[in-house]
Amino acid sequence: MTSDMIEIWTGILGLAYLAAAGLYFEMLSAGKRGRASAGYGFGHHTRPHPVRIRRSR
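The structure corresponding to this sequence follows.
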């Protein structure tokens, strides 16, 4: 391998490491927030809430 290829692979692996670390810390912080803020963060979806209908008298 030439030094150019080593630099390219080092850059690719470095970016993959940073992406994995970012996902890891995002999942850690999502776990600390608890279930109340499940709609915020990576991979979380809000639960559907029933629609309240105001009835006139």
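The chain has a mean pLDDT of 79.
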